[in-house]
Amino acid sequence: MVLKSKTLFFTFLLAFISGAATVILYASPEPAMLLQEDEGMVDQTQDISGNKSFSISNGSLDSYEDVLQKSPLDAPMPDNVKTTVEYDVHSGNYVMRTKVGEMEIATPFTMTGEEYADFSAKNELQDYWSELNSKAEVDNEKKFSITDIKFDIGKADKIFGPGGVQIKTQGSAELIFGVKSNKLDNPALTERMRKTITPNFEEKIQMNVTGSVGDKVNFNMNYNSEATFDFDQKLVKLNYKGNEDDIIQSIQAGNVSMQLNSSLITGGTALFGLRTDLQFGKFSISAIASQQESETKTVSSRGGAQKTKFEVNIDNYDENRHFFIGHYFRDNFETAMSRLPLITSGITVNRIEVWITNKRANYDEARNIIAFMDLGENQRIDNPHWHPTGTSPIPRNNANTLYQEINSLDGVRDIKQTNAVLADNLSSYGIHGGEDYEKIESARRLNPSEYSFNPALGILSLRSSLNPDEVIGVA
């Protein structure tokens, strides 16, 4: 039989890369005049000298009319040309001068107070529109990106503060597609069942999204498919932060934590729920309603080894290794241990043999044995067919009628006839193999190094646990 396996993998890596696209729209006014081929240059000159929406100024400021006459088609003044306005205290008028350095390049002229006020208002209005236009141009130059989104919220900034809505996204996604082909050359299978093809799909996603609404509301979300713990795989937190004089100082929702400076009541870190902080003057309240997704453990180490406390039920400790050789020892265990370090059981077992199912093929001291459950019991006899003899509870062969009755059966010591003899004589009394007795062929005797025995308490402890398919007997 030959097993062949082929696996093909294709990896696709998708990353959130800051991309942008810019669209700028310009609006230009309709031309104020159209030059048409006509009968002569004189007619064209007359059309040009008529009413024009965009006229060109003469380029110098010689009068108040020149100040008011500005056109979008005018070239900007050079940087070395300065225009100043001086107040004449004698006449109460304003004098406008145009200079290059200390040399005047235009005839100074005067403006009345009303003309200067009108001139200043128009200049401020022009500067205001220029500032808005420059800001709009800067906003238009900003590239749009799905990973960095910003937009205003209008009048809602009075509630959430300035800054608008900002959303930033970072992360990566790796998708692995694979195909696994298995071919099993087994003649017992059909051709279709010999070859199987199964798809394989894996994903690795790491993503972080941060957002804010004004300067009061923050949002943060993390997703990592490769996180060590399940509660670290998805982290979501929404936070509202109030002003210093607000009653509501903060509201947190999602993955929250609450650290306390008290040893009596400990805080928590991996919590999912709602937390709020309130402030009433000098009185503050921190309240939380959450679900804890973690647990706290204390681990100590000594000499490079880690020490961890744990609890195990007494009936589950070291299963199938420790046994009482009789009910008498179990019933009197507490009494015998009541005056430690002195054991007051009053009994000492001088010699013991332990036999077990032979699974090692070691036949040096192998013997065929029959183990009875009620042998040696005087008070706690499982099968009512056996009757106690005497009043002494101490385990012995003649503690009940079992040993005498079994010893009187003909052929019971012949291992080939054991099951038949016992079944013919005892099955009518409800005594069956596997429940009341067990026959073991070629049983192996345990060496003293394979177990330990307490002769005063009657406790047998094996070095290795007894397997479910093994039987142990004591003589």
Q: Report mean pLDDT, rounded to a whole number.
A: 78
Q: Please tell me how large the radius of gyration is.
A: 51 Å
Which structural class fits the helix and strand makeup? Answer: alpha+beta
Tally of discrete structural domains = 3
What count of helical segments does DSSP give?
9
Q: Could you tell me how far the N terminus lies from the C terminus, measured between alpha carbons in angstroms?
A: 51 Å
Q: Strand-residue fraction?
A: 25-35%
Q: pLDDT under 50 segments (min length 5)?
A: 1-50
Helix content: 10-25%
| Overall body shape | elongated
Count of DSSP E strands? 22
Largest β sheet strand count, sense and barrel closure: 9 strands, antiparallel
What does this entry look like structurally?
Helices cover 16% and strands 34% of the residues. With 475 residues, it is α+β, with helices and mostly antiparallel strands. The chain has 3 domains: 60-141, no CATH class; 148-174 and 201-292, no CATH class; 321-474, no CATH class. Strands 1, 6, 7, 8, 9, 10, 11, 12 and 13 form a 9-stranded antiparallel sheet that branches. Strands 2, 3, 4 and 5 form a 4-stranded antiparallel sheet that branches. A hairpin with a 3-residue loop joins β8 (195-213) and β9 (217-224). The longest helix has 29 residues, at 113-141. The protein starts with a strand and ends with a strand. Mean pLDDT is 78; it is low at 1-50.
